[in-house]
Amino acid sequence: MSDIAHSTVTFDGRFARDFKEMAIPWRAEEAPDPQLLVLNEALAAELALDPAFLRSPEGVRLLIGNAIPADATPVAQAYAGHQFGWYAPRLGDGRALLLGEVGHADGHPREIHLKGSGRTPFARNGDGRAVVGPMLREFILSEAMHALNIPTTRSLAVVATGRSVQRESPLPGAVLTRVASSHLRVGSFQYARSTGDIGLLRRLADYALARHYPSIAAAGNPYLALFQAVISAQASLVARWMLVGFVHGVMNTDNMTISGETIDYGPCAFMEGFDPGAVYSSIDEAGRYAYRNQPVVAEWNLARLGESLLPLIHDDQEQAVVLAVEALGGFRRQYSDAWAAGMKAKLGFRAGLDDEVASALVDELVALVQESRADYTSFFRHLANAARGRAGAARGMMVDLAAFDAWAERWRALGPDADAMDRVNPAYIPRNHMVEEALTAATGGNMGPLQRLMEAVGSPFVERPGLERYTVPAPDSFGPYRTFCGT
Fold it and tell me: What is the tens place of the pLDDT at every residue in 410-429?
């Protein structure tokens, strides 16, 4: 059965064929004892991959690149990037491989990519490996984001390799099988531009247009239109992050996709007590990628994309700069519009409400929530009950009760839609202490806590009995939260 199933799996190597300048053929490191830890069966079905086969020994080896179809060409992709503002001209997949692409139920192909599959020519001083905890973190966080309707790369599987990996102490190794509409990044265009090969840059832009924005490929200036489309996609994406309190933690240009999907769940976290300066990454000492800075950094990253595209936008560089700057000028408006629309939905405002009234109420509430350091997720969830006349839980999270009461009176007079609020304000997010509990247990061989956490965050807007502990913020004893890349 497994042989038949294996024969039906094909990985189209389009990127490997078309962009040899940016793809080094490479093979995944052999895992001594691969064991499947978690499989996303729903995603497998969308990709027309048989879950039963993927659970077989041969399927598990396929998931980590140790057994691939004969015609597949795994490659390590080249890209550049600004890391914490510093430019690195040659980053690339130091511990990752693109296996190729497969079909999807929606008619658009998906790329299958590995993390932790061993050293590649881009590895520099790294060992190319990954450990169980960070790979399962990406599985949890990416699937939670998908359930929250936020564009994201997804996780198909995590496989333990049977190899110990040295970090501060020896830890069990693992490989993540990631799925994305593509792995094109701002850093991909920075790399192509840095080669001086304008033909390569143009081919890459044409590929991005055809793959992600086919409706604008015939625009009068398609490369300017591509830049504008990525600006729009990222403005919407970052607004969605902000609306659920997600802090990415490492918004380098090599971690910003052209598709508008969230990528790289390293030192990321969901904010609990509302703090615009929230930083969870152990390596972000200056707070460059703090919660409040994410829109600013996104705009900065997009400026680097614009610089890379200048030769395609116009033959005259001065005119190209004018056009690119004008396009980038739309980011703040688009981000602000997306965030404002999202906040109106979170507050249950009905159509037709005056924008000035809505904006004033939003600004006042954000200030109250910040002053109170209220738990961001549960406050908005409780606010729906306040719209139903049960304000106790939301009110109890406020420091200035009189100010909240005055605000709530004006808000309720507008007739907020409580049911609509429940559809956009999640009851469950991957709370940091719950994630750590699941990762610690899984590293020790107990997958039960992870499975229960995935049950909660997999359907975040529907409250269910028995899952109450997943709605509660971390206890004080959990202390300040810090996350790590795992490399």
Answer: 999 999 999 999 999 999 99
